[in-house]
């Protein structure tokens, strides 16, 4: 079974790329982030024509998450993080699909640092950690997949020294990611590629993709039940090279 995460950076503007990738690679479950569309503008007809059903949590112009499943309908289990009733951002969605529990997240960027956006990011991470602690001991396989907007280590960025003042690389957020893996969550991509330079995002500017000046900020974390089934993981880099594509590439795992 293949589970993927993909920040599409505008689901309607990138729809041809998304549909082509779905039809070419046929993942079983897909988590999408940064839909940048209200609920009524989610392109469900095109998604269904590609062989998928979906649930989604949209927001006009910003954010937005969706879970797609091939040949079946995801059963929604959670629509937002607890802990802040005033948080109106569409950043978390969770569903049961084919015996798995899948959480799709779009963690806040947090820039500029310092400032209220970074403070919001830290509060969001605290709420997410509380949910992760609740989900980890479940007997069923749990995958928390999405754009974490966290560069975990120096090995996950092309030039670490250039990112020391960025909210994606701040000590507080790297420590939070380390707490998740320290609590037992398996970083699937790094587990399969422990020593390789693996990126998931390349900026549109300064020819970043051609120079491979990238970051690893899209992650799939697995609880113990899911980690025991991990067989492979990778990045569909070719999607990033297409015209009118996202600045992220899809990241995937295979479970046995």
Essential attributes:
single chain, 256 residues, alpha+beta, Deoxyribonuclease I, Chain A, six-stranded mixed beta sheet, 7 helices, 14 strands, globular, Exodeoxyribonuclease III, EC 3.1.11.2, hydrolase, metal-binding, manganese
Explain this structure:
The chain is α+β, with helices and mostly antiparallel strands and 256 residues long. It is built from 7 helices and 14 strands. It has a 6-stranded mixed sheet with strand order 3-4-2-1-14-13. Strands 5-6-7-8-12-9 form a 6-stranded mixed sheet. The longest helix has 20 residues. The chain is globular. The mean pLDDT is 98. It comes from Sphingomonas ginkgonis. It is an enzyme of class 3 (hydrolase). This is Exodeoxyribonuclease III. Its EC number is 3.1.11.2.
Approximate helicity band: 10-25%
Query: What is the count of distinct domains?
Result: 1
In CATH, the architecture is 4-Layer Sandwich
Q: Output mean pLDDT.
A: 98
Q: What is the number of helices?
A: 7
End-to-end distance? 6 Å
Briefly note the CATH topology name.
Deoxyribonuclease I, Chain A
Low-confidence parts lasting 5 or more residues at pLDDT below 50?
none
* Beta-strand percent range: 25-35%
């Amino acid at each position: 079974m293949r589970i993927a995460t993909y920040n599409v950076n505008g689901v309607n503007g990138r729809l041809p790329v998304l549909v082509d990738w779905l039809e070419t690679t046929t993942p079983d479950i897909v988590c999408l982030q940064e839909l940048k569309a209200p609920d009524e503008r989610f392109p469900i007809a095109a998604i269904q024509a590609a062989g998928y059903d979906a649930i989604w949590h949209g927001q006009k112009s910003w954010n937005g998450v969706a879970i797609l499943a091939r040949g079946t309908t995801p059963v929604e289990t959670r629509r937002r993080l607890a802990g802040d009733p005033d948080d109106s951002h569409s950043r978390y969605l969770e569903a049961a699909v084919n015996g798995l529990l899948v959480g799709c997240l779009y963690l806040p960027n947090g820039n500029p640092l310092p400032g209220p956006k970074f403070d919001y990011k830290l509060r969001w991470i605290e709420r997410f950690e509380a949910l992760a602690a609740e989900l980890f001991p479940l007997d069923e396989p749990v995958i928390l997949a999405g754009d974490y907007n966290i560069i975990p280590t120096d090995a996950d960025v092309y030039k670490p020294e250039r990112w020391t003042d960025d909210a994606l690389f701040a000590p507080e957020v790297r420590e939070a990611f380390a707490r998740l893996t320290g609590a037992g969550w398996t970083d699937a991509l790094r587990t399969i590629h422990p020593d390789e330079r693996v990126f998931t995002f390349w900026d549109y500017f300064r020819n970043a993709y051609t120079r491979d000046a990238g970051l690893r900020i899209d992650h799939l974390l697995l609880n113990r039940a899911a980690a025991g089934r991990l067989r492979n993981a990778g990045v569909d880099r070719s999607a990033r090279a297409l015209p009118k594509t996202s600045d992220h590439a899809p990241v995937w795992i295979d479970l046995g």
